[in-house]
Amino acid sequence: MKYILLCGTLLFLLGRTTAQDKDEVSFSKNLYPILKSKCLKCHEKDDENPNNYAMDNVSLMRTSGKTKNIVIPGDGAKSYLILKLLPNPPKGAQMPIFSKKKLSEEDVDLFKRWIDQGAKDN
Fold it and tell me: Which residues contact 105 (CB under 8 A, 6 or more apart)?
């Protein structure tokens, strides 16, 4: 009986790991299309970017800008990027500012999951 319970538990855990692997968020496949359509108009690496926060690639998302902790790999909840995508951010307006249509909850969740998964350049 213990053997059956142990096998069942192992199968359950292996199934969860496989499902989590399938749910890995890809910067290039999942996030970049959103960035391109909603964010890069104001957040490209150029001289007209008022806060110097560029979202052209993962490296820039982690290091550019005037605000610290914009992307904290492994901690989406504390990453300033997520706070700015939600209503009533701690400072300024919700992003994207110049669009009446904000990111969907699903899109924000993708960004949060990507950061929680380590903000990989994938």
Answer: none
